[in-house]
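Q: Can someone sanity-check these two? First one:
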Amino acid sequence: MARLTKIIIIITISVGILAVLWRDTFDPGVLSAARILLTGASKGIGEQMAYHYARFGGELVITARNKTLLKQVEEKCLQLGAKKVYSFSADMSDPKSADRVVQFALEKLGSLDYLVLNHIGNDPFDMWNRNAELTSWMMQVNFLSYVQMTAAALPTLTKTNGSIIVVSSLCGKIAIPYVTSYSASKFALDGFFNSLRLELMMEKKNVSITLCILGLIDTESAMEKIRARGILTVSPSPASEAALSIIKGGAVRAQEIYHPWWIVSIVYTRDWFTELRDKLIYNMYPVKDGQ
């Protein structure tokens, strides 16, 4: 009990310090006429990001698998004030899609200021059943396609001193049950893009990389999965608020952003008491009969 009390005190102090130090320096003007390629834009956080970028007057290429939903988002973005919007349906499980999407964006916008990588593959939210094919598929969609799109877009982003925004998850910092393949892909994003940031600095290339660590967000797919498991222990954050946090973080060229902001304390203290951490996580996830 004393150990748990100590952890709570340390986390509280850390959160308090971060709250005092945080300053919102976001200037919406920097996004007016900005050329943005946004993936996973047909629903959820990606859809909300598209609407925010539209209100700020950006020029958008949006992509996702669902062509019908994507077209609806495109039309609404134009209504909200986007200077240009083009949609391109693509399945990121196909390794060729990344180059096609980036080429389409360059043809329509001429160049890029922001590459916003947000798409994800649907995870079954279940115990891993030795399905290596699922893990391979998840790595392609959630990780390798991010790398492929970055490789294709990096030359133009280097010329424009642009930004790469990578939408990740707390599951890419802390391992939890039921998301083995998903978590692996998110941990991979953390390692690759943090390493790439250092290499770009060494090469004197002024391309920023913002890694966005998200907690529980009230997207339809996420809420369905956790409710089915009976593990809703915290209130989810609205997708629109998460989307705006991501956009602000990318615009100010932050290295990492956390939403909700207090989850940063969980990441900073994750390795202090590993046994207790795992016990707490275990107790949060009730095991159903037969599992």
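And here is the second, same format, sequence then tokens:
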Amino acid sequence: MPIDSPHSNTHRRATTMSKPAFTFKGLMAPVFTPFNYDSQKSLNLAIIPQYAEYLAKKKITGILVNGTTGEGTSMSITERKAVATAWANAVKTTKQHLMIQVGGASLPDVLELAKHAESIKADSILCLPELYFKPTTAPQLTEYLQMVGKAAPNTPLFYYHIQMFTNVNVHMGQFLETLGDKIPNFAGIKFTSSSLDEGIQALYADNKKYTVFLGNDQLINAGSADGMDSFIVTTLNMLPEYSQEILAQWKGGNVSKAREMQAKLTKAVMDITQYGSWVASMKIAMFLLTPIEVGPARSPLITLPLEMQTSMAKDLQTLGFQIKM
């Protein structure tokens, strides 16, 4: 669980012009963007307060908006701002840490989204790299993130490392070792990769200066074994107890129990994602396992057909989950 209380003064970002503080540790849910079942798959912002309350009751104290799970790159700039604003309003009640992903668009739009995130008092910002004129070196990536950092100078900035989608292969350990103070509000990375050796180098870079969020549901146990303590994983939306229990068992020194819980979570992930793309299948799992209706995946993703949804429901029942249909 996070070491700082969501109700503490340190939980919100610093408001001075000095380097903004970032103290969040633990589990952060990358939330789905709720869409309606209409021809446009329009935004369903009305459900977001209920969504935030649901996660708060599950003891999830951190929220990531407009990331991969949130289909941020499938929305217009206006839509992304609307979703971010809806969550900013919701967390005023739930007191959850709010991180907003601003990348995956043209640079002027990325800078506009960063400014908007700061204006609505996001606690932190996450940013993908440039996706067309891709950075190939640490200095190129640094230059890009410097521009984003300057657009929202009072908000902690994180880099989103997800090679499987971006094909940006700058080594994160080496990048963080060379960064120094070139980006005053830079706080760390979201590391969505199975290359744990690289993730661990990033974690220990520059005397553990940066926060590293591991973004792999199936490696929470392995990451914990290597010293990681912060995770942003999709299954926190519908199966938060598993990740929470893994961390609790590690804290209590029960390695075998942590490994057992990871095996159960991994099995659930495999049963869910065998039916389609990550986000599309996880959205169906969210419907089956929770009271929150996040709707379909938006194009270019394809929503799972009914027969696959039914098969997933049967698989989850076999694993012992109560499902709705």
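A (reply): Looked at the second one. The beta strands are 27-30, 62-65, 97-101, 124-127, 157-161, 186-191, 211-214, 231-232. Residues 221 and 262 are 6 Å apart (CA to CA).
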